[in-house]
Amino acid sequence: MVFESTGAPPTGSVPAPRAAARVIAIANQKGGVGKTTTVVNLAAALAGREKSVVIVDLDPQANATTGIGVDFRSLDNTIYEVLIQDCAIEDTVVATSVRNLYCVPAKLDLAGAEVELVSMLARETRLREALKPIRDDYDFVLIDCPPSLGLLTINGLVAADELLVPIQCEYFALEGLGALIRNVELVRRTVNPGLRIAGFCLTMYDARTKLAAQVAEDVRDHFGDQVFSAMVPRSVRLSEAPSFGQPIEVYAPMSRGAIAYRDLAKEVIEHDA
């Protein structure tokens, strides 16, 4: 695999027209479940399979932005300006050091967007409308939603075709998922009837513990074949990679974490086959 930047996003020079991107929101209102880790590393794994991918960072912590090596402090326009100031989203896309991988970055100002969106017209659909001009330019759009069920997450769900839910292999793994599923059903009934669940991804799996095995079994019993076969292990390498601004595919490509995300990318691609 090659991991150099390609510069500008893909253009119309490809041999055949590209279908509109699959827009996948990655969400779980519980924090610390590996949501942003999944966004960054799944995106890099998809890019390694010659898919053109853009990450949309909707989390005010901006961890997906920094985890892919983008310094939001040097940028004038981010997803905040798109949602609040009607900036064109194509003016915010930046190339990363990973070939085929791009990012619509976040910055800390996004923390105030929840309040600012409340008084805006069509507040739940602003991201969906903003994405329209670039959907034909990529194979995948991955949306990193914040760990909450507020307006930013709702914007992510309304903009998405699919929802991928990371579930930590620890006690209380299923706690709170009912609220997320209810929100998905509400979004379906009101503004996005095409939204479907791409699947549930088990993260932070520690094969040495009985608890992790039991949680994995419980999740599979509960959600059946909606649970991806690939399980992301608890890994020091995965924890280290963001501090270097690199996905695991670059930082430690032969690690168990990198292999797991490549397996997950394969399943995600085949899910739409």
List keywords for this structure.
273 residues, 11 helices, eight-stranded mixed β-sheet, alpha/beta, disordered N terminus
Write the layout of secondary structure elements.
Elements lengths: L21 E5 L8 H14 L4 E5 L5 H5 L11 H7 L8 E2 L5 E4 L8 H6 L7 H6 L8 E5 L6 H9 L2 E7 L8 H14 L5 E10 L4 H14 L3 E7 L2 H5 L7 H4 L4 H16 L2
Parallel strand pairs: 1-5, 1-6, 2-4, 2-5, 6-7, 7-8
Antiparallel strand pairs: 3-4
Helix pairs in contact: 1-11
Descriptive notes:
The protein is α/β, with parallel strands linked by helices. The two termini are 23 Å apart. The protein has helices at residues 35-48, 63-67, 79-85, 113-118, 126-131, 151-159, 177-190, 210-223, 236-240, 248-251, 256-271; strands at 22-26, 53-57, 94-95, 101-104, 140-144, 162-168, 196-205, 227-233. Helix 1 packs across helix 11. The longest helix is centred in the last third of the chain and has 16 residues, at 256-271. It has an eight-stranded mixed sheet, sandwiched between helices.
